[in-house]
Design brief:
- The strands form five sheets. Strands 1, 3, 4, 6, 8, 9 and 11 form a seven-stranded mixed sheet that branches. Strands 15-16-14-19-20 form a five-stranded mixed sheet, with helices on both faces. Strands 2-13-7-10 form a four-stranded antiparallel sheet, covered by helices on one side.
- α4 packs antiparallel against α11 (355-414).
- 56% of the residues lie in helices and 16% in strands.
- The longest helix has 60 residues, at 355-414.
- By secondary structure, the chain is of the alpha+beta class.
- It starts with a helix and ends in an 11-residue tail after the last helix.
- β15 (523-528) and β16 (531-537) form a beta hairpin.
- It folds into four domains: 8-162, Immunoglobulin-like (Sandwich); 176-384, Rhopdopsin 7-helix transmembrane proteins (Up-down Bundle), CATH 1.20.1070; 386-449; 459-627, Alpha-Beta Plaits, CATH 3.30.70.270.
- Residues 478-613 form the GGDEF domain.
């Protein structure tokens, strides 16, 4: 029924539009004549006027991918005694060039499109990705207009004639819908990255990157957000980047799906095909640098369809074989693919433009993101349950061993002399086992509070020890200071020298921090990623500043080398200290240090900023920590 509804149409011949009798909003698709002509720079000529125009068939016109120029012709009549203003608007951002002519002139009334900087919605300040063209129809007159459109993307023309209030209401509704969509997407992305940091899981990282590239970046460009929100008029950002993002996101998804479905273990042949498919996607990404935008978009669309077909066949095979957990994957991926198919049918001019064909992809990806997030959360809960069961079994074994020891000790006192040596031998064996268990338990406890890479304490240990040290400082009325450190441009280190060099950099910086602290009770922790934190009990803010400045110089002067190249890094510091009271929470000091760290980065990095400086300038509370 849905397909029948999408394909349904009522053919109405193009006719003169009497604007004095119109409602607030009129879809012009069935009131215009259309023709496709070769692209040229001649503008409106008699050749265009005499072309074989045909009547539009749908309320929202769709011409799919075409290298021709689409011309629209329509007449506006005003039989009233006063001039009437109406807003001609096209609610589709992916148009390269758009020209509106009056039949009486050869000079365009409006020149819009992605090819023209700052010419997107020049006529009105509408907070949506619309092309807006105000028209004034004189009293007792009839005007004929020609609209010329071309684009390397598919051409959809949901064209309307509205009043200004009606357009603003529709633009507001569009903004609400987009904010709702991207709000849900960002929520899922933040959840995915939180799970990645919590579990340190590679699949979670793949999924997070897929969400960022596909659900966020791809749809942001598709909806014209770079210009609408940030005023970016770059043709590359608004159009040419689409096939790059699509190729990257499909490559990431291919790797993620292969890992999640465990193709290497359960379907070796499919795993080899997935690797080949990854190579194809990377090749399509390379070809995007070579091919014109029109062909690059077509190529990435076809390769994306290939990814969908491949994983549909793999999942179907797994379902037939009874693999558990695959149906939820099919539900998530299938809704996204279904939405993309509907959108693709619109792009290829197989179905008309309407709400379902225009936003089915958005709806499908929202369902896909929700189901995938639920799947990853379920798997995390399952892994946690397995770890708890393992610990329970370990504790049970330890209890059993202790009970065995007790029984043997009781037997020892009652045993005969000739069994004493045997009892002692068994006791020694059990003691060795218990000693090994105790050693292993200590090792496990040490591992749980230490960062595996840098060997300093981890974030979990910091969260436990800092409130205790804060309480001690309150009881003793002694100062306590905190230093927050962030390695500058750490992502560039990974990009330029590789992740192994990045790990070496983290280890070097952690070593400098351990060597720099003055007291055994000082605590150095890895706060997350390239961030570190130092707790300095019984240390004033001035002493902490001197220590941070010394560390900054040591880090900046340290050469980090791998087998081929050597480099240096710098770091930014935020320092805070005080004598705490019951009215001050430990989180307040961390927040001040975080604000000071942000100020160090904002003021050029490679510097130490004291929290008092932030408070004095009145900028602590206004700091935007998301840009650190």
């Amino acid at each position: 029924m849905l397909v029948v509804w999408m394909m349904s149409t009522t053919s109405i011949a193009a006719t003169r539009i009497e604007v004095d009798r119109l409602s607030d909003n009129l879809a012009l698709g069935q009131y215009v004549d259309t023709v496709r002509l070769e692209r040229d720079d001649s503008g409106l000529t008699d050749y265009v006027r005499n072309a074989d125009f045909v009547a539009g068939e749908y309320e929202a016109l769709n011409f799919g991918y075409t290298q021709q120029r689409v011309w629209l012709k329509f007449e506006l009549s005003n039989a009233s005694d006063h001039d009437i203003e109406r807003i001609l608007n096209i609610r589709y951002p992916l148009i390269d060039r758009l020209y509106l002519y009056n039949d009486s002139t050869t000079t365009p009334l409006y020149t819009l499109g992605r090819f023209y900087a700052n010419e997107f919605d020049q006529a009105l300040h509408i907070p949506a990705s619309y092309f807006v063209m105000p028209l004034v129809i004189k009293a007792h007159s009839t005007e004929t207009y020609y609209l010329s459109v071309d684009s390397d993307n598919s051409i959809a023309l949901p064209i309307y004639l509205t009043t200004t209030p009606a357009l603003e209401r529709q633009a507001f509704q569009y903004a609400v819908n987009i904010v709702f969509y991207f709000g849900l997407v960002v929520t899922n992305i933040l959840f995915a990255f939180f799970m990645t940091l919590l579990l340190r899981d590679r699949e979670q990282l793949y999924y997070s990157l897929f969400m960022v590239s596909y659900h966020f970046l791809f749809f942001a460009v598709l909806e014209g957000m770079p210009h609408t929100l940030f005023g970016i008029d770059s043709l590359f950002i608004s159009r040419d980047i689409i096939p790059y993002i699509l190729s990257i996101s499909m490559t990431i998804f291919t790797v993620f799906a292969a890992s999640y479905l465990k193709l290497r273990k359960y379907a070796p042949k499919a795993y080899k095909m997935a690797k080949a498919l990854t190579g194809i996607m990377l090749l399509s990404l390379v070809l995007c640098f070579i091919l014109p935008s029109y062909y690059a978009i077509k190529l990435t669309t076809l390769t994306s369809i290939l990814v969908g077909v491949f994983y549909a066949s793999v999942v179907s095979n797994f379902i037939l074989r009874g693999r558990p957990g695959v149906r939820s994957f099919l539900l998530a991926w299938g809704t996204g693919v279904a939405g993309a198919i509907v959108y693709g049918m619109k792009v290829w001019n197989l179905v008309p433009v309407n709400f379902i064909t225009s936003y089915g992809w958005h709806i499908g990806t929202l369902i896909e993101a929700a189901v995938f997030s639920s799947m990853m959360a379920y798997r995390a809960a399952r892994d946690r349950k397995e770890r708890l069961e393992f610990l329970h079994q370990l504790n049970k074994k330890e209890r059993d061993l202790r009970h065995t020891q007790e029984r043997l000790l009781e037997s020892e006192s009652a045993a005969k002399a000739d069994l004493e040596l045997q009892v002692k031998q068994r006791t020694r064996d059990l003691s060795n086992i218990l000693a090994q268990l105790e050693t292993e338990n200590r090792s496990l406890a040490e591992l749980s509070i230490n960062d595996g890479l840098t060997k300093v304490r981890n974030r979990r240990y910091f969260n436990d020890i800092f409130p205790q040290m804060w309480s001690d400082a309150i009881a003793d009325q002694t100062p306590i200071s905190v230093i927050l450190l962030d390695i500058d441009h750490f992502k560039k280190v990974n990009d330029d020298y590789g992740h192994i060099s990045g790990d070496d950099c983290l280890v070097k910086v952690a070593g400098i921090m351990r060597q720099s602290v003055n007291h055994p009770i000082d605590v150095v922790c890895r706060y997350g990623g390239e961030e570190f934190v130092i707790i300095l009990p019984d240390t004033t803010q001035q002493q902490a500043f001197a220590l941070a400045e010394n560390m900054r110089k040591n880090i900046a002067n340290t050469i980090i080398s791998n087998n081929e190249r050597a480099f240096r890094v710098t770091s930014s510091f935020g320092v805070g200290g005080l004598i705490p009271t019951e009215e001050i929470a430990p989180e307040d000091l961390i927040a001040q240090c975080d604000a000071a760290l942000y100020t160090s980065k904002r003021n050029g990095r490679n510097r130490v900023t004291v929290a008092d400086d932030i408070a004095t300038s009145g900028k602590a509370e206004a700091a935007d920590f998301t840009k650190l």
